[in-house]
Amino acid sequence: MRFDNKIVVVTGAGSGIGEATARRFSADGATVLLVARSEEKLSKVAASLPSDRTEWISADLSTEEGARALAAKAQAMGGADVLVNNAGIAVGGTIEEVSVEDWNKQIQTNLTGYFLVTKFFWDQLKAKKGNVVMTSSVSGLGGDWEMFAYNASKGGITNMVRALALDGAKLGIRVNAVNPALTKSDMTKDMLDDAALMAKFRERQPLEAPADPSGVADAIAFLASPDARLITGVNLPVDGGVMASNGQPPQ
Ligand SMILES: NC(=O)c1ccc[n+]([C@@H]2O[C@H](COP(=O)([O-])OP(=O)(O)OC[C@H]3O[C@@H](n4cnc5c(N)ncnc54)[C@H](O)[C@@H]3O)[C@@H](O)[C@H]2O)c1
Description:
Elements: E1 7-11, H1 16-27, E2 31-36, H2 39-47, E3 54-58, H3 64-77, E4 82-85, H4 100-128, E5 131-135, H5 148-169, E6 174-180, H6 189-192, H7 195-204, H8 213-224, E7 235-238
Parallel strand pairs: 1-2, 1-4, 2-3, 4-5, 5-6, 6-7
Helix pairs in contact: 1-8, 3-4, 4-5
Bound molecules: nicotinamide-adenine-dinucleotide (NAD).
Nicotinamide-adenine-dinucleotide is lined by residues 11-12, 14-18, 36-38, 59-62, 86-90, 109, 113, 135, 137, 180, 182-183, 185-188.
């Protein structure tokens, strides 16, 4: 119960990595505040967790209004000890295919959204000497084919985490990221059904492809815990070994 009496906010908690993360912190004793866009999914996840330690709110975190509403709710609960910025979308396509509107949506959700939420939680985190864990991606550490907009958003998070860690250190706030590779979630469900594609992923993701989201959640909980008290500004690949490769194909 290492998060007993701690308030942990998980964005994008309606499914996938966020849902697994909320479950993990809750199992470790935390009071969790879940947020995502879809009330339907979120209310189901919340209903399966202890009612006296679970709150939820639906909000669009790509907007200032949504991010402020979430921070206000957390403040009313006593202020966040841990903020998990995880909500995200993935826009695929080449530069010829991706519209200006889709580019803006990608950056607004994945990068500006993380900025807005972190900004409006900063005072709470200062008060609690808390920490932030962001779900970035291996797509923030290297390029993917036909995913440049997603790569740009996650690459932004990679360096935002480092710089915020420097600013946060003097305030007692740690800031880290996890960088998962292919993980089972609503975002990837179309890919998971493609057997040929999964075979290609298994060639490049040596330990577990596709990964179970609980493995990512466990790494997030570690970074948020006192065991990681000396760790800040880190982008931790939670990728089954993808980033261990120099990119040459297996023989
Ligand atoms: N699944 C993977 O293979 C994988 C790999 C690396 C990184 N990631 C990252 O993990 C994070 C979680 O994704 P997932 O795979 O669990 O997908 P998912 O689709 O299951 O979950 C995404 C969550 O984000 C929420 N969300 C999206 N836009 C939002 C907004 N504007 N406001 C509020 N909530 C919003 C959704 O409601 C949902 O709850 C994302 O940041 C994603 O980029 C996923």
